[in-house]
Amino acid sequence: MSVQTNIENKLTQQLNPEFLEVINQSHEHAGHAHGSVDSHYKVVVVSNSFDGQRMVARHQQIYKILAEELEGPVHALVLQTLTTEEWQQ
């Protein structure tokens, strides 16, 4: 299973998102020390599980869910975390 698929599956299972987009941006970092095929991702996740949480807590929650990927192939992770209400605005 690909790193991207693992990320999508874990976030879907843990956060039950209204919207989830995982974008592999590794090709933009070719030639960097960590510019492998599965090293850089952007994640946009909209979930009501973020209700009442500050941005830092949301990101920490995702880092915990994706700890295995962040210890392995994923070098960089850009996060956009929103509640459903924030997404609709």
What descriptors fit this protein?
89 residues, alpha+beta, GMP Synthetase, Chain A, domain 3, 3 strands
What does this structure look like?
With 89 residues, the chain is α+β, with helices and mostly antiparallel strands. It is built from 4 helices and 3 strands. The chain has helices at residues 3-15, 55-65, 67-71, 84-88; strands spanning 19-24, 40-46, 76-82. The chain has a 3-stranded mixed β-sheet with strand order 1-2-3. The chain is globular, with a radius of gyration of 13 Å. The mean pLDDT is 90.
Topology:
Elements: H1 3-15, E1 19-24, E2 40-46, H2 55-65, H3 67-71, E3 76-82, H4 84-88
Parallel strand pairs: 2-3
Antiparallel strand pairs: 1-2
Short description:
This protein is of the alpha+beta class and 89 residues long.
- The proportion of strand residues reads 15-25%
CATH architecture classification: 2-Layer Sandwich
Distance between the termini: 35 Å
Structural class: alpha+beta
Averaged pLDDT, please?
A: 90
Number of DSSP-assigned strands: 3
Ranges where pLDDT stays below 50 over 5 or more residues in a row are none
CATH H-level name... which superfamily? BolA-like
Task: Give the overall shape.
Answer: globular
- Using only C-alpha atoms, the radius of gyration works out to 13 Å
CATH topology: GMP Synthetase, Chain A, domain 3
Q: Helix count?
A: 4
Strand arrangement within the widest β-sheet reads 1-2-3
Helix content: 25-40%
